[in-house]
Structure formats: structure tokens, C-alpha cells
Design goal:
CATH class of the largest domain: Alpha Beta
Helix content: 40-55%
Number of domains: 4
CATH architecture of the largest domain: 2-Layer Sandwich
Oligomer: single chain
Distance between the termini: 53 Å
Number of helices: 12
Largest sheet: 6 strands, mixed
Low-confidence stretches: 331-336
Radius of gyration: 34 Å
Amino acid sequence: MARFKTSSIALDIGSRFIKLIELKKEKNSIMLAKIGIKEIPKDSKLNRDKITGQLISQLLSENSIKSGAVNISVNGQSVFVRFIKLLQVKEDKLNQTMKFEAQNQIPFSLNEVMWDWSLLNKDKNVSKKAVIVAIKKNLVEEMISKLNSVKLSVELIDAAPISVYNCMAFNEDYNDQNTGAILDIGAKSANIIIFNKDNLWLRSFPIAGERIEEAKEQGIEEFLAEIERSIEYYFMQAGEEAPKEKKIDQFFLTGGGSIIENMEPAFVSKFNIKPQIMDPFRKLGVSKDVFQKLQASGSRNQFSTVAGAALRGMADLRIKVNFLKETLSESKISFQKRFYSGVSIATGVLILISFSVFMRQDYYIKKIKLDKTEEMIETYKTYEPKIKKIREEENILKWKIDALYQTASSRAAWLGIFKSISEILPKDVWVTDVSGIISIEKSGLGRMDMNGKALSYQSVNAFVSSLKALPDFSDVRPVSSSVENDKDTGEETVRFSITMDVVL
């Protein structure tokens, strides 16, 4: 069972407005806890990034939000979207299959983009359908940098059309058996989301609120013509999966541009269907104070995108993509490696220090006894045999201390070796166990055997090459390697063994 968050903050940074909401879990319901909206001035002489940062800070201050993690959505025109149909694929092979599909579908190297995927249907008896989304890395980095400047971190980045669809699906505003379409009309761009059962299709285009306000009736005609072309293209692409009657049964309007004058009658005239206005807060609880603020914020349906983003992690939604998923996963693995490596080194150092202190204390006690005995030699010649015995004990103790210090030195050498290995260890290779021995003689050679796992043979070869380049090792050679399935994640991993000489 999915574990949901108790609160969630989302921002929608549009071309004309910035919207913020916070949702909170209360018993079995989700409450709209905070809401705010700010209009971005149209003055082209102003520094838009600076003004945007100031407005976000004002929204946070007015809603008593000091800092924290937020969810955001990116404009549909910035996102690359592909829908694919998969053959019967085992659950443990899905990640590998989707990465292969992404490499074929995304027209950029995967190193240049941030991408994610989500299944559209989970029925094991039918072929799976999935959506792949991608965005250029530099766009994501710019957004994160701007939010970091106002003390906000980002834990989720969604695509705006998907956030809108999730919002409608959560509120159950539609008949799942019909073919429906959502028109999300922003200031500079619009999204059309067509859905039917497990099928979903998205398209973004630049005819939206500002163009309609500028060109009046002609702008509305251009907008509706673009909708008509999108619908025709959808049915053409759907092929056999399209419903027999190739028509849209329900239209839903959302976004700030959906309330433009004469939009609804023109829509009815064009498609002979009266569109419905989305209410993104239909299934959310709203307190009196927040309700009054919501009423003063204008049309409710302009909050569909930010509401869909805020619902991520709060409810079980239809589509779950996050452009930061790979980044967050890498950060988690890196943190775990650093943490356990630091604990291991600290534990080793503590053990060495403890042994050293204990043996030094024992030695000093014996030495004090010896000194006192020597002072009494002149007076008590009869104690000479006893003194001789104590001296013999002292010599034995010194020999033990020397041996211990040599052993401690070899352990310190091991710590240096482990540090060198940790610095070159690739992120997709991890060591499971190490065994070996180091000579306590100066300029002596040691031997070390290492077992581990990796995500690919290339990673193992790269790791071996890095070990050979280190001055600490000689005669580095792989002993064995094999492919197996990881019991925890189900992914294929390469198990390997390496042996090498240790040079002191």
C-alpha cells in the first residue's frame, strides 16, 4: 500500500500568473490549507526573473511558508511526450524495457534530458500502455536555481498537461466510458488532453489567451480550428483503438483563458457540445477562511495545474511522472555510500585509538613500577632477582607493543587503501566483501581479494582499469564475473571477483 504525505505545497509559474496552494491530510480527507495568486506585470522593461522571485517570496510570506520542498509543473510545449504500447513484459523487466524505448523515442541523448515514464493501465491480462516524457536538463536546472534563490527546494517536477489530467481524474468529473477532452487554456499556450478508458493523448500549441484577447473573434476561430485539427490527428493516430464514433463526448475547460468572453457560445457553435468548467477543488475540503480567499482569487478552474501537482504524493493518481526521479535516486545512493563509508572509517580509527591508549596506559604503569624498583636497588640488594624478573616482563611487554604498533600500522594502511577505492568507485558499482593480508615488514607486499556487484560489465572493466592506475596496487586482475538478478530490485546485476597485490 502506498504511503502518502501529510502535506504538500505546489507552485504554478505561468507566463501571466503565479499560483500557490498547500494541501494537508486530515483524517480521511484532503484539505485545501492555503492558496494564493499573483499577477506578473506585463512591462517588458522589468527583469522578469527578479519580479517572479519577488512575487513567489510574497506568496510564501502571505501564507506563512518560510521554506521547504515544493512540487512544480512545466509548460506542455517544453516537454517531449510519447505514448507507446508494450508487448507482454514481466514486471522485473519494465525498467530496462522503458529505458530501451526512451533511447529510441526521445530525439536527444538521454544524457541531455531528464525523463520518466508511467504505465497508463495496470491490467495484467492486456498489453501495457505507457507514456514517456522528457525535458532538456538545462530547463530543469534553471527552474531549480530560481526556486533555490527564494529558499525553496524542488522534490517533484511534473508536466502541466499530466497535472491537469490527474486533477480531473482525482475529482472524478468524467465518464470513463466516453471519449473526453480537456482544454487547458493559458496565456501563451494551450494544452488538449484527450482520454478514453486507458488511452491518453496530449498536444500543446501556442494559440491561447493572449492571442484570443488580441484578435477577438478571429482569435477564438483560430483556437477552435486548432482544437479541431488536434482531434482529427488524435483519431487518425488512434487507429483501431479509436471508438467507433469518432467524436468527443465531453469537453472540459480549465486555465485562465477558459473564461474569455464569447468562448462558450463559439465552442457550442463549432462542436455542438456545451463544455463543462472544471472544479479542481470539488473533492477537497475547504475551511471558511480559505474559502473566502479562494472566492477572491478569481475563477477556480485556473488552479487545475497547481492542484494536480500538489496532489502528487497525497493521493493515488492515474499518472505518476517526475523529471527528478533519477536525480533523487542518485542522491540517495550517493548519500548512503558516503554515510556507510564514513561510519566504517570512523569505527576503524576509534578501535585503533582505543587499543593504542589502553596499551600505552598498561606500559606506563609497568614503567613506573620499574623506576621505583630501581631506586630501591642500592638499599634492597636482596630484591635483585625480583627486579630481573620485572625487567624481563618489561622486555616482553615492549615486544608486544612493537608488534601491536606494527599491526596498527597495517590497519592504518588498510584504511588508506579503502579510502583510495571509495574515491574511484563508480556510482553503479559496489563492493560486497574484501579479504586479504598485508606484510608488517617494511616494503612488504600484501594480497587483497575483492567481491562486488555492478549494473554492467562496462562498469566492472572501468573499475578494474581505475584500480590498475592506483599506485597502491599491482597485478590487478579479474578472477570471475557472472550475471544474476538482484533479489531486492529485480534488476540484472554483474557479480565479480578481483584479486591484486597491495604495495606498501
